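Ticket 4471: requesting a sanity check on a complex prediction with 4'-phosphopantetheine. Repro inputs:
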Amino acid sequence: MIHAVYPGSFDPPHNGHLDVIRRGKTVCDRLTVAVLGNPLKSSYLFSLEERVDLLREATAGLEHVEVETFSGLLVEYARRKDAQIILKSLRGALDFEYEAQMAGLNRTLYPPAETLLMLASPEWSFLSSTRVRELASLGADVSGLVPEASLRALRAKFG
Ligand code: PNS
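Returned structure tokens:
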């Protein structure tokens, strides 16, 4: 039974995240999307509860996928969940250095979990939650970039 955790802030979830979840679940038996609730970072647009609800709605119907929160060290969470895979997404070379560093440190801290870096699909390789928040706050139509749940939530925030 291969259990993968896919950690992130998901502020808000976008189509690139959903693509990684759909593709990621094909390489494991169980995929837990782990939403970071970091008390040190108070600059999230959406609360932890909102981000979890958005992901649960967007992943409803996807078998073997669950959404949970975590705080503190990712590897401690992976250890508690008995996860063998930490799933991350790479959009391009800019992500690589950052992800390679995290993967190396996480592996040193907790060798049983392997980081699996999944290349973002080309159509989402430009997408980030930061850009989605910026675009939505400036009134752009982001309906082609985010799932319905996030679109509704962004419209509620920005009108
Ligand atoms: O979506 P994000 O904000 O890029 O996700 C970053 C995340 C949650 C994967 C990363 O910040 C993380 O793993 N945080 C948990 C704290 C931790 O374990 N830090 C040490 C990493 S070597």
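Notes from triage: The pocket of 4'-phosphopantetheine is lined by residues 7-9, 36, 73-74, 102, 105-106 (CB under 6 Å). Leaving this open until the requester confirms.
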